[in-house]
Description:
By secondary structure, the chain is of the alpha+beta class. 17% of the residues lie in helices and 43% in strands. The chain has helices at 35-42, 55-67, 84-89, 94-103; strands at 2-8, 22-25, 47-52, 74-78, 106-114, 119-120, 124-127, 134-140, 143-150, 153-157, 164-168, 180-182, 184-196, 199-200, 205-220. The strands form two sheets. Strands 5, 6, 7, 8, 9, 10, 11, 12, 13, 14 and 15 form an eleven-stranded antiparallel beta sheet that branches. Strands 2-1-3-4 form a four-stranded parallel beta sheet, with helices on both faces. Strand 5 and strand 6 (119-120) form a beta hairpin. It starts with a strand and ends with a strand.
Amino acid sequence: MTPVVLICGDVPLPLPLGSISTSSAPAVPDKDDFDEVFSKLQVVVDPRLIVVGSDAALAATLTRLMRTERLHIELAYVAEHRSDATEAYHLSSGARGARTALKGTAKPVPLIRDDAGIALVGCATVTGPDGGPLVGEAYVDDTRLFSGTTTSMTVTPTPRLPGMRASVEPRRRWLPRRWVEGRAVQLGSPAAALTRDGVPNPRDVKRSTFYRHDQEWLLVR
């Protein structure tokens, strides 16, 4: 295994990664920002890409691996602090996460994406426009998640099949959140504000679908 580090944004590099070849990218990399690190990965044996940054950086990296047919590359994630993605995949953060990135084992996990071709690694939230109530209807596979009006909808990936789960905000604060697992979540709404891994969609959407990709990705844990 040959590790290559991609530092996304202004984040500190954990000490365990200090002696490894690094490339830099913006906090949320675009497709051209991967040219340098992909060139490095192309010439090493058994490549492992270690992303240091936010959930949005990891999602952008996984999206690029998917779109360029590089899902055979092992992918590790080192977040400075705990995040939705570290919670979803039971990952450590900081120096401990860096040691896992170097010494952990890559295993296939379901890849969750949406109909815009963007990977989801931590959490997607959907509300009404400007954060207001969400009006519409959503299904997880054949199970209706809600119909009518709700405060918000949340979608997260899981490391096991069927690959994802979704819930809506409980009507009463003291009620437990009900999660429904499945391989696809479909939403229809007059207008909905979508945020993927902390990155707001530039426009409101009327339809949004998250589903399990036909290939898995190799996550180091």
